[in-house]
Structure formats: structure tokens, C-alpha cells
Amino acid sequence: MKNLANLAKQFITQLNKTINVSNASKPDKCYYKEVLDNIRKLKPYFAFDEVSITNCIESSNIKIDKKNILALIYENEIKAIIGKYCQSYKILKIAQKKIECNHQINKFYCEVTNDVFIVNNLETFTEMLSTLDSYLIDVYDHSYRTYNSYVCFVVILTNKGNVYIIDCIKLRQAIIDKGLFTCNFKKVFTNIKNFTKLKVDFKNITCYSIADYYCDDNCILFKDFNITVNTYIDWRIENLHIYLKNFLSTKIINFYKNIKTELIDNPCSYIENDEDFLYLEKDTELYFKTFKEFFVSKYLLDDDKYLLKLIKVRETYARDNNESIYYVMTNGQLSIFAKLKLKNEKEIIKHKIILSSIVKQNLDQFLYSCT
């Protein structure tokens, strides 16, 4: 690249000199021939550089699984894991039931961690249930480009020290029939976000507690590659690769190490009634109030009408276009709009905010107005 830049600079300098000399009279054919000759001389350098850049990019897209999985790796960190042939599944709807549950689980202890199992068939699932008593649970859903997200995998750490990675798409009916998330088993959710994900999809969640702990540390894996909580993964990928298996099991074990000594019987004070906190009931005032509290506490925003307006408008356009609310406008973008109270497109350009096509088409609805 450096050599190419120097050659280009020399060529342009010489070209400028030639043009300046020729200003007094009309350039002759020799002038144009000289320009073309210089361009031809530079072409091989451009071609070489294009090949170098292409090779660099291709070397970053390392194939993890030759069948359908790709990983984008930069500086030994896996930035994204995607499938070549991800599908949109037809997800079985589940009816809400009125279930009374007064059970409590205050602590979760497990033996020394043993094996990691991928549960993607009925036989393995039934075998897992026969050994299950209580468990710690982490949840992974597909919510990148759809309004009503659905759970793809749950990862549980049992009191016997086993880690199970369960394919919730393949085993959805079996999970319902066997009551994995009901009072048949006591469970601890790693945080409120994962609880609400599962509550939306499976509705009837009982006999649980919420640790409300967030794991933001890197999960270091073998072969010098890291996967972090910020790595983008499309969870619709079938057949989990060893990298993902390692990531999921390491993460839930890290969760356990951080919460095992904490008392968790009063986890989240603002969930007074489970039935009120359904993401399927996204227009409820409690839903918007909870989102507003999140923005006020995390981004230190003013608790005002404009913040609530942004949350509701984002929700409306996400629902109408069947898109993720985060695709319409990320939390970071929403916080900037709320904090700076942007009034026009010039202010958006000034702060270098890249908007989604949906926000661009309906920008007036997102801008701040004093009225």
C-alpha cells in the first residue's frame, strides 16, 4: 500500500506539471500518450494490491464448518459466527395458562462441573430429564431481524455439574409436554433479560428465581480465538460447532462462579406480577415503564416525555415492519436522540449517526419537538 501511494503521488505530481506546461497551448497527442503510459505502468501495482486486500479479507473469513458455518475473525477475536443457509422457522405458538406457584429457590449449588452435552433429539432430552432436579439457565434467541423473537437455545447447568445445550426449536413440543420450565424443576435465571425472553416464548414459567447478574467478560477459547458477549451469532445455525459449544458452556460456568455465594430470593423488585411482564403484551404501560427505567439508569437520561415517545415510536415501527426494535434504532442511538434532543437532519449528520432505512423514511416521528 505504501509503495502504491508513493507511485500514485509521483504520477499525479508529474501529471500536474505537464498540465501546467500545456496550459499555454493545446496539448498534443504526445501528452495524452504519456498519461496513458503512466496509467498502464500503475495498473500492475493496483492489481497486486487488490489481490493482497482480497487475500487479507478472505483470510479473515475462516470456515469453521465446511458445510454451513463461517466465522469472521479479527485480531484473534471471533467477531461474528453466521450460517450460509439460516432459515426462518415456523414457531409453534403456546397458550398462556394460569398456574399458581409459591415455591422459592434461594441458593443454587452444583457439584464440580463434568461434561457438556448437546441435546437435539428426544432420546437425549428424556435422558437429561431423568437426572434433573434444579438448574441454572441461560437463554439465546433470534431477535436480530424479527419483531417477535423466538428462543433457539437454552443452556442449563445442573446441580450435578453437567452442562446441557438444548435445541429449543427442534424440541419445542417436548419441552412443553415434559414441563421443563414448570414446577417439575427448580430453576435460577442468570438475569432478567433471559427470563423475559423465555417468558415471551414459552409463557408458563414457574418455580424460579432470578440472579440478575450480567457477564461482560471475555470467554477465552482454545486455539487463541476469543468469543465475547458482543460477538454476533445467528442462533438459527443448525449443528453447533465446538467453538459455540465451548462459548456456551464457559459462559454459564462463569455465571455460576459469580453468583454461587449470593442470596437471590429477592431478585428483581419491579416484577410484581409475571403475567404483567409479557413481551407479547408490548403495549402495556409496565413494559414501557421498565424500558424507560433501563435507559434512565444505564445512559443517565432525563425521565421525560420525549424518552418515552422514542421508546413507543421505535416499538410501533418495529411491529409494523416486523423488524427487531434494535434494527429500527439501537439503544445507543435512542439514548443519543434522547440526550441531545435532535431537531433536524443536519444535527444527525453532525453527530455522524447512521440511521436505519425505517427511521430515515419516518424521521419526523423520531425528532424532538418542543410542542
UniProtKB/TrEMBL annotation:
Domain of life: Eukaryota
GO biological process terms held by the UniProt record: exonucleolytic trimming to generate mature 3'-end of 5.8S rRNA from tricistronic rRNA transcript (SSU-rRNA, 5.8S rRNA, LSU-rRNA); histone mRNA catabolic process; nuclear polyadenylation-dependent antisense transcript catabolic process; nuclear polyadenylation-dependent CUT catabolic process; nuclear polyadenylation-dependent rRNA catabolic process; nuclear polyadenylation-dependent snoRNA catabolic process; nuclear polyadenylation-dependent snRNA catabolic process; poly(A)-dependent snoRNA 3'-end processing
SUPFAM superfamilies xrefs: HRDC-like (SSF47819), Ribonuclease H-like (SSF53098)
InterPro entries hit by this protein: HRDC-like_sf, HRDC_dom_sf, RNaseH-like_sf, RNaseH_sf, Rrp6-like
An annotated Gene Ontology molecular function: 3'-5'-RNA exonuclease activity
GO CC annotation terms, alphabetical: nuclear exosome (RNase complex); nucleolus
Protein name in UniProt: Uncharacterized protein
